[in-house]
Write a structure and sequence with these properties.
Layout: H1 6-20, H2 23-37, H3 57-80, H4 87-95, H5 100-118, H6 124-143
């Protein structure tokens, strides 16, 4: 069980709303960061076959889904102290053989993207809340393998 406060959930929700304010822009930041850190990750995402394209609805849709899952993770943590991931989500990550290092790259890209999205509203407290929500989501996905 993880203690996650209403305030932490609110911080994560606010960051998600900032991301949603310009999904195409922040999707590009997110996937560009992933590919800078781990170029081979391109092979994990079929929609990156032609590069990072903000007009690609699969790219923006996947980013929105991931960021939404982190927001949902925060809500689950506040409500119950744990996160449960859908078995299908675990299966996809298992099938693609996503490893711990790749989860870390995604977390770093998520944090960088949200930091840019919220601008001067970024704080250590927000960063901690986002990282905790993501880490618990990642653990739940791995558990669902």
């Amino acid at each position: 069980m993880v203690a996650f406060s209403d305030k932490q959930e609110g911080l994560v929700n606010g960051a998600y709303e900032a991301f949603k304010a310009d999904i195409p822009k922040y999707s590009v930041v997110f996937y560009t960061t992933i590919l800078e850190k781990a170029p081979a990750a391109k092979n994990l995402f079929s929609f990156l076959a032609n590069g990072v394209d903000a007009t690609n609805p699969k790219l923006t849709g996947h980013a929105e889904k991931l960021f939404g899952l982190v927001r949902d993770s925060a809500a689950q943590l506040r409500a119950s102290g744990g996160v449960v991931a859908d078995a299908a989500l675990g299966a996809v990550h298992s099938q693609k053989a996503v490893n711990d290092a790749q989860f870390v790259v995604v977390k770093e890209a998520l944090v960088k993207t949200l930091k840019e999205a919220v601008g001067d509203k970024w704080s250590d407290e927000l960063g901690t809340a986002v990282e905790l929500a993501y880490d618990e989501l990642a653990a739940a996905i791995k558990k669902a393998y």
